[in-house]
Amino acid sequence: MKEIIAIIRPNAVSRTAKALEAVGFAAMTVMKCYGRGKQKGYLEANLSDVADIEKILEEGEKEGLFMKYIPKRLISIVVEDEDVPLVVGIIMKMNRTGKIGDGKIFVLPVEDAVRIRTGETGIEAIGN
Amino acid sequence: MSSRSSVVSTGCLGDFMKLVKAIVRPERVDDVVDALQNAGYPSFTKIDVVGRGKQGGLRVGDVIYDELPKTLLLIAVNDDEVGKVVETIKSSAYTGNFGDGKIFIQQIEEAYTIRTGESGI
After folding, report:
1. For chain B, does the N or the C end have fewer beta carbons within 10 angstroms?
2. Within a domain: B115
3. How far is B64 from chain A (nearest CA, A)?
4. Is B111 in contact with A107 (Cβ distance < 8 A)?
5. Confidence (pTM)
6. CATH number, domain with residue B24
7. Cβ A38–B3 below 8 Å, yes or no?
């Protein structure tokens, strides 16, 4: 089993959830979170071109051009090993705008899972 | 997108990456974030959480506070940078009192940037 952690834009959660539900991955956990990436929180609205990121960062921190904590949503989905490429692909497709701030996806190993209602463990606990 | 099997078999990401999960005092977060940026790690995710440690919460008179507000920081780094990030968090989140927090490190097998589809951090 793998845990897929995706940090995405808040307004992209519902379409991501719908797309995942359509292919049978209805279960997910969503958390409100804050963060930033390697652009150090520079807002895309202030960047004329994504290609300019390096140049702008080199010029140093500009007052008012960046946000320390950008609101995001963290979604966590636990799936079987063979479903990882499918789920990662769907998340990428539903969230890619090409602008900075689209987010990151991490895939982590999960040792075991337990469904509390029934006591099932392992793959049975995450299946439908 | 690379298939999972190719990522694992070729080891194209070099070594695995690690997810550093740090539970710190909310009032120390700004210091931790600034220290990490100065050390060359500007990226992070922060989540507001509540929790308690082995002291079982905080007792003030007859009242026990067992849901203490904390902040969870998630920082994804390459394997060889874990030590530096952990040291940075340890020194910037330190007050010496109970409740300074914990740091956990988990393995990341794959990582993707959604904007470009690139794998790796």
Report:
1. N
2. no
3. 27
4. yes
5. 0.82
6. 3.30.70.120
7. no
